[in-house]
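BUG: 3D viewer hangs when loading the predicted structure for this chain

Environment: internal workstation, default settings.
Expected: structure renders.
Actual: progress bar stalls at 90%.

Input used:
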Amino acid sequence: MAKNDKVLIDGIVDERITLKIPSEKRDEVFEYFAFEQILKDYDLSVDEIKNGTVDGQDDGGIDGFYILVNGHYLSDLENFKWPKSGAILELWIITCKHHDTFKQAPLDNLVASMVELLDFTIEGTNLNGDYNEKVIRFRENLRYAYRKVSPRLTNFYINFAYASRGNTLELGNSVVSRSQHICHVANDAFGNCKTKFTFLGSTQLVELQRKVPNFSLELPFIESLSSNQKYILLVNLREYFNFIQDTGKLRRYLFDSNVRDFMGLNRVNEDIRDTLSNMHSPDFWWLNNGVTILATGAVIIGKSIKIEDIQIVNGLQTSESIFRHFESGGVDINNRSVLVKVLVSNDERVRDTIIRATNNQTAVELASLHATDKIQRDIEDVLKLNDWYYERRTNFYKNQGISQDKIVSPLYLASGYVSMILKAADQASRLKSRFMRSEESYGKVFSESADLNVWPQIASILKSTDSFLESVRPSQQFKNEQFLKGNRQYLSFLTVSRLLGKFTYSVRDLINLDISKYTMTELQTTWNLIQSLHIDENVKPKTLKKNLFGVCSLGAIEWNIKGIERIIGEKKLDLKDTRLRNFKESKLSMEEFAMKVNEILPEQPWKPRIHLHVMEILKCTQAEYFDAVKFLIHEGLRYRQKDGVVYDTDGNVISFDNERVDSETLLLKPYDSENPN
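Structure tokens produced before the viewer hung:
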């Protein structure tokens, strides 16, 4: 290792501390930097990298825990797009230490943890080691994912990484031996896995940091047809494979604008695979719609085209199938071709129109197409005028080198809108991207009738709030995101209401708020009030929600804030617009009726037709029953259940019906007419 590599790493860390990426704590900044570089080929978003952090007390020697299926980060089990076949499961276990050497002690800890964490015959409640909540949850996510994809698993990779500021040329024998032991433990647990242990010191981290996404590439072709900056090309399959890969990894950043994830080997992709494998099939482009590339510039030089600012906006299924074919050792003795369209435009609206059109030809979730909506482009434009960068397309600005402290995501801003405009801080703290699947809920937040100037104000308020919370948050790294998400909305909403003197402030009031008055001192004043109610600073949003109205009521008395009735009136706001019945003609309130339903319902998971039993006892309609259950789920008294599987508020599986659900795949068992339950 060149001695100066350590100096370079320290300089990078110093700069990121200044920018608070992700905080001002040196060990946390180094850790996040290491995660970012180690996982660079997966092009994970900022939120995904942070989500995989488990470092803290009782972390079992694990600092980063990342599960990927077909190259996509797994966080929400319930809403993940599971491949129907051809699944590749990858696990990354990362240990990070801001040391200038590689030490044996962290690996000793990791060996002990892996022995039981990778043994799925041991239930979570029977683990001998002490592990924090996130480690346990991620371990259960891995177990679930392994069962889920096991019938269609083609490859299982377990990657261990140890990053420090040390020199990998000076690894001690005991350290190397421990790394080999860890790989043996993994191989003993999974006979079909491929394990690898990587040490990354200052030299390796600097090399990774210098590796930047290349959006300007050259693509050789066989034949071409061009007119007015539009090109139709026939490209050799092997040449296209080389175009979309780098050192054996798919260049995922080239697909930022493609709104569909790889679906695994569904019927269409199985056909593509079979065509690639069948050397007697017709030329590939005869049977395939090909690939569409958006660019800001392109020029043909001989039998090659130089393309600038590449975005593959259609053909992800085709591209990943071609990549998998050659990456796994496949050949193409007939030198077949794929059809590639290259469209050059610098007009963002034209580019977004092409993205929507090319991705609307097959079934795509409506939520995935919202990135190209006019309101999303408008928000991006108004934020840029105020020195904020809106990632309506994941990692679009990150891959351009824009500092993370200037980047905001749609979900981040949406949560601020729900809290400060819709006055529902409790729901804002639990908001997930799935809300965009509902046109009603999406329209409530991203309304074209709202003044665009509210978005820069929300961005500034939330970022300032995060800066304050970073200064008071617990020292344990693994609680960072939970702490921020659980307190951000309550603190910002109450502070804004105090500065404006009312809970009933309007959008115009918020826009006109002098942001220079939203200071650390003001936030500290609000925080002191929240703390005075003895709310645990690490409390989960679901628990803090029960105190929201008490906090606001106390704030109304303490600071003479008007309009507390607005908070009470909106506490059951439903973003999905599936309004709970108000039971005006009933003697019971919704809450009273729901409590009666709750008393009758057994422990989850429920059996089929349980609603008929409850309806018979309470003499209520089916609609009334389901409205009551929605209320119970909304209040955290019950959990969401689907096909015999029960999910918590984060989408993690917490239980399932053993009689109805296969314990290996967590899918419903075949129907038995003699035992219909």
